Amino acid sequence: MTKWVGAFQVAAVYVGTVIGAGFATGKEIVEFFTKYGFVGFLAILAAGYLFILLGSKLMIKSIELKANSYEELNEYLFGPILAKIMNFFMMIMLLGVCAVMLSGAGAVFQQELAIDKWVGVYFTIALTIIVMAVGTKGIFAVNTFVVPIMLLFNFIVMTKSITHLEFAENFINIPEELHLWKAIVSPFSYAAFNLSLAQAVLVPIATEVNDKKIVKAGGIIGGILLTIILVSSHFTLITLPNVQHYEIPMAAVVKSSFIGIYFIYVLIIFGEIFTSLIGNIYGLEKQFSKYISIHRGWIFTCVLIIIYSLSYFHYGTLLSYLYPMFGYFSLLFVFLLWFKPSKTLHK
After folding, report:
1. In this entry, which stretches build a coiled coil (predicted)?
2. Residue 255 and residue 268: Cα distance in Å, rounded?
3. Which of 99, 101, 184, 295 is the S-S candidate for 277 at Cβ 3.0 to 4.6 Å?
4. How far are the Cα atoms of 156, 189, 239 from residue 327, in angstroms, in the given order?
5. What is the pTM of this model?
6. In tens digits, what is the pLDDT along the chain, a chain of 347 residues?
C-alpha cells in the first residue's frame, strides 16, 4: 500500500475503534467533557494531544516489539508478572465494553427506529460474523467507509449549532457546581481508557502493516480527527438543554434541527458503534488464539455468546459505571506508554 493510503486506513481504524457507543451517541462526551462547560473544552484539547502523541507511539512500539497482540505490549510496559494481571484486566474490559457496544446497538434500534432491541442485537451479531469471516480487510473496509461519512455529518450538525443564539454564552459557561479535580483528570482518564482498549486493535494492525512511517502518520491523522470530532460534538451538545438527561443526545439534536437527515444519522451512529465492536472482538480473538488451539471461527462464536449474555444489562447503566471506572484503571497504562524510556528490544 502507498504511504498515505495506508496511513488513512490506519487512521480510520484508529478513529473507528475509539468512536464507540458512548462517543458516537454523545453520551460519553457529555460524561467526560460537556458537563464541565468551557473547562470541558480545554479538557478536549488535552485529550486530543494525548490521542495524537500516544496513538502513534503505541503503534511504533508494537512494530519494534513485533507484537501480535496487546499482551506482548503490556509485557514490555509492565513486566512479565504485572502484565499477566493487566492482560486479564484488559480481557474483562474488552468483554464489558463489547457488551456496551452490543447493548448500545440495540438501544439505537429501540429508541430511534422503534424496532425491538433484540432485533438490533441479532442484526449486529450477524453483521459481526460476516466481517470477522473476512478478517483484517473487512475491518479496514468498514472503517474506511463509515468514518468519513461520520465526519461529514458531524460537521453538518455542528454548523447549525454554532449559529445558535446562545452558543457563545453556552461555550464560555462554567457550571456553578464544577468539580474541578474531576474536570482536570477527565482528559487523562478518557484518553487512557480509550487508548488502552484501542491497543487490542492497533497492536496487531500495526504489526501487520509493519511500516513505522505509515503507522506514525496514521496515528497523527487519527488523533487529529478524533480531536476534531470531539470538538465539533461538544459544540453541538452545549446547545442542548438538560443534555445529561439524554441517552443518545446527538440523535436528539439531529431530531430537533435536522429532521430530514435524522434516520441517516442514526444509521451512522449504529455504524460507529459497529466499527468499535468488531475492532474489540478482533483484539479478543488475537488474545484467545494464543491459548486456545481451535479455529478462529469458534473463538469468535464464544466471544459473541459472552458479550450477548452481558448485553442484557441496560445500556445507560453500563456506560455510566464501566467507562469512568475503566478510564481511571487505564491511567497506569498510559503513564508507562508515555514515560517509559526506550531500550534495546529483544524478541
Report:
1. none
2. 14
3. 101
4. 30, 4, 27
5. 0.86
6. 588 888 999 999 999 888 875 676 788 899 899 999 999 999 999 999 999 999 999 999 999 999 888 889 989 998 888 888 888 878 887 887 888 788 888 888 887 788 898 899 999 999 999 988 888 888 888 988 888 888 888 888 888 888 877 888 888 888 878 888 888 989 998 898 889 888 989 999 999 998 999 999 999 999 999 999 999 999 989 888 888 888 778 878 887 777 777 788 888 888 888 988 888 888 888 888 877 777 777 888 888 888 888 777 665 566 566 666 666 678 888 998 998 766 544 44
